[in-house]
Every structure is written in structure tokens, then in C-alpha cells.
Amino acid sequence: MRIGLFFGSFNPIHVGHLIIAQSVLNGSDLQKIWFVVSPHNPLKPKKSLANAYDRLRMVELATANNDAFMASNVEFKLNQPSFTIDTLTHLTDKYPGYAFSIIMGSDNLGSLPNWKKFEAILSNYPIYAYGRSSDASTPFDLHPTVHRINSCMLEISATEIRELIKNKKNVRYLLPDDVLEYINSNNLYL
Questions:
Q1: Which of 27, 29, 86, 100 is deepest in the core (most CB within 10 A)?
Q2: Interval 145-170: pLDDT, tens
Q3: Exposed, middle or buried by CB within 10 Å (0-12, 13-18, 19+), for 81?
């Protein structure tokens, strides 16, 4: 089974994430996409995050109607903060028959040297970089494990969504209905 790992805080997951995931699935040989909820991304302040279990539940709700998508809490069981190589190593050991790939924004390719053991990632795991063909090139574009995927991109930001919610603005079409209902029921981001 070929699995694409879409890592993120998903704070909250929004329709842009889902559109990207479907575009990557359509434009690759991946069979499934696992949305890996990161309890603590080492590059983001933890205090800005909603509870990890709330974020996981929102991803579960957002992906429930697509058999090719799955919410994953694998990083909840690993040391914090989460490092991609540690998650990849854990999953490869746990699922030896699966082939794992990484899904990331093409804008993040240039920051790969800042990642823990990025050479091991590049050597052992394909990367599907989504974005527009007009995105700036990086030194990794020609690497044999990097595959560019053109995707329908919407400029939607979880940060902006949180700000809109805080200011009691309508975010109805930016989030799946079940996610919006969960946020409202649990008074998140107020």
C-alpha cells in the first residue's frame, strides 16, 4: 500500500487541506492519504494550538466521508516535539508492507535543510510537493525523490480562520460543516 503522509497542526483543518489532499491523490500513484495530526510542531509555538485531541477529532470529521483519507494520531504516541524522520521511522517499522511518502507545500522544500536528518528523508521517502507551477524553484526540485504536484490552491489560512472565529465572523464555506459544528459546540478559538 502506498500511503501519503500529510503532516500538519490542522488548527483547524479546512477545505484547502482537503482540496490539496485530493489533488495529490489524483496526481500521484498514492492509494491513501493519512492526515498526521502533529501535537507539537517544533517550528510553531504550542500555546497557539487548540487541544491535540480536538484537532484530531476535527480531522476525523473532515475525512470521514472519503475512504482514501484517514486521520492519524501516530505522533501522539511519540516524543514531543514531533520530528518527521522519527514518525517515518516508527511507521516504517510498524507497517513493513507499506510505502510511505511525504506531502508538503512546495514552499517548504527550501526549508528541508532545517529538518532533523533531512538527508535520510530525501534518500528514503518520496516527497510530493503541492503548489502552483509558478512557485519558486528550490535546490531539491531535481532530486529524484521529489515530485511536484500542481494542485488547485485556495489561499486559505488556519490562522485567518481562527482570527475570524475569534471576531465572530462567518467561516461557513472555509470549513467542512461537521468541523464548523464541532468548533461551535466546543467553543474553540474564541
A1: 100
A2: 999 887 776 789 999 999 999 999 99
A3: middle
CA distances to 5, 60, 123 from 126, in Å: 10, 25, 8
Asked if the structure places residue 167 within a domain, the reply is no
How many domains in the chain?
Answer: 1
CATH number for the domain spanning 17: value is 3.40.50.620
Which amino acid is residue 75, in one-letter code?
A: E
Grid cell of 5 as nine digits: 503522509
Tell me the residue range of the domain where 38 lies.
2-154
What kind and span of H or E run contains 119? helix 118-124
> If 0-12 CB within 10 Å is exposed, 13-18 middle and 19+ buried, where does residue 73 land?
middle
Is 168 among the domain residues? Answer: no
